[in-house]
Amino acid sequence: MSGESSAQEAENDFRIFLTQYRQHLKDIRAHFAGQTLDGADSEGQNEGGDETDDDNILEPGCGMQAATVTEDSKEEAVDQDPWTASEKDALFHGLAVHSRLRPDLIASRIQTKTIPEVCAFLEALENAASHHPLPDRRRDTLLPAMEVTDSWITWEERQAAHLLLAEPEWEAYAQDAQRQSILTAHPEDAPDSPRTPLLAQWKAQDALRALDKHRLRAMARILRHGEASAEDGSPPATSVPDDANLDPVVRGRSQSSTPSTRELSPKSRRRLQKRLYMRRKRAEKTGTEAVQDEGLLKVGRPAKARPPPKKTGPPRKRGRRGSAAEDADATQRNGDGSEEGEDEGNDEGDDGEEEAGKGDYAHPHKGGLTAPYKARRLLQEAGITPAVLAEHKLDMFDGIGVARFLEHARDDGTAISISRNTLALLYDILYDIVTEIVRRAIVSREQEVNLKAGNKAWRVKNPDGILPKNVEHALEMMGAGAPPRPGKRKRSADNEEDDGDNWGDEQEDGDGDEASASDTQVTSDAQDAKDAQEAQFDLAEDIYPAFFRLPSAYAEKHGDILPDDMDEEALERELDEEDELDAEDCVAQETYEENLWLSMQEQPAIN
DNA sequence: AGCTCGAGCTTACTTGGAAG
DNA sequence: CTTCCAAGTAAGCTCGAGCT
């Protein structure tokens, strides 16, 4: 057949897949919203239809306390905090989304109830259900799990690949349409039109949507500049200063800060001394004069002069080069202004390209802006400042570290990026975890201080301070072991012994020096390596381990799995039934897949 | 405190290829 | 042919760590 008809066929397949995919998406969203497939909310519906006549009793919105579930279960379910209607709503919502086996997830959804309280409520519900037995439901009335053949999976994979390509385009289109409608609602000539701030906001959003390694590095640079200006006490820059616009001398010393040596801490003083020493050594090596300014120098390779243009011939066309390229050019030239030996290069410049090969000049063939510079320029033009990054929750992670992770994430060298939303989500997760750790550490410390206050044998030096061991205790309570402490690379044997002794001492009366606890660490290299390896595979699940609750009905039957007086005939019968059910399921599966293939032949509704 | 080494980072240069 | 692009590379700076 012709390629045209096969293309049409593929397009039709994709439309069918899309219809199914959207339905599936809708179902999943309904599930997580706690709704049943027919769109009704899950209120009052327990899993497996556990309640029949009790709908009115267990209805979450009825405002009754859990203690009123049944008379018999009153004792178990009574607790100090009666369940409000909204809490019961949330509980049934959670039951629909998760299951009765995961009270931890349900409790986290309710937020105001603990796992034991949820367990007590579920127990009460089960007791209530046991007093109102359900009609015997045969297993063959339940829908089997459907297994499809490889050919269907291959077909779905193919369609999914198409979807993956098409989705970003659709999203962009939908967003454009939305923005256009907003702009239409706000005419430009209207007084106090929010168009300008909106456009600026959208530009920033677009610049930060997909963050590749270059943008991540540019972000890290912006944040670093922000921090540096904050430390200097200078007003925060509204945007990253463009080096090209700075005076070369100022730029060379842009990070210079010259505090008096006497004001410096011993650590800073030593750092400064080393810095100056290294400058002297480098100057000796190159035969130049060392810069004795205490501030930081401009890092990076110094720029060479460019050879002058040819005296004959037409002037070079510079039409398509952007202004930034001109700026970069200027940067490179200006950069040399502060360097030693620059004058010679300029003096000899009139000799033209003859001299270019001698190394005094840069190569006459000048490159354009490279990707890192373009990313930097893009963010600058979009008005990305540390405040904007903070607003988008992008100031938590080190951009360089994330960029390096992305670089190593794929072996095939494919360029990949990370979504702004993903980073913001990680920010939220980290925020939640750290908040919980801090909360538990404070509680741990308060309890410890209270306990010790009643006994004169204990001496608490700093009752308001949180100790590392409190944090470790908090981590233990959350099911995560204490992270490996940062180790030192090499220590002499005697030092290690000293540390070992101190470690024990400071564990006992560590109240005096909380901040320097990391100095007291002693772990063997092998242990460090092992811990590091374990830490590498830590996941969020390790922080919050799953809490399973086996319903009491299961626990009671535990002893009867293989009774001694087993009825062989009954067992045979049950196994035969099992086989029959399996056979029926297989037939159902085949029918199901046949229907799937048939549904492809129907023209789907295009939406 | 002086000195050395090396990692890590930034910046600019080089150069082959693509695009106009 | 000119201009632009971008990966790779060179050059320089800072700083941590460790030795003497």
From TrEMBL:
Residues 267-283, 301-321 have a biased composition (Basic residues). Residues 48-57, 337-354, 495-516 have a biased composition (Acidic residues). It comes from the Eukaryota. Residues 253-263 have a biased composition (Polar residues). Residues 36-61, 226-369, 478-533 are annotated as: Disordered. One of its GO terms (biological process) is transcription initiation at RNA polymerase I promoter. GO terms for molecular function: rDNA binding; RNA polymerase I general transcription initiation factor activity. GO terms for cellular component: RNA polymerase I upstream activating factor complex. InterPro entries: Rrn5, SANT/Myb. This is Uncharacterized protein. It comes from Schizophyllum amplum.
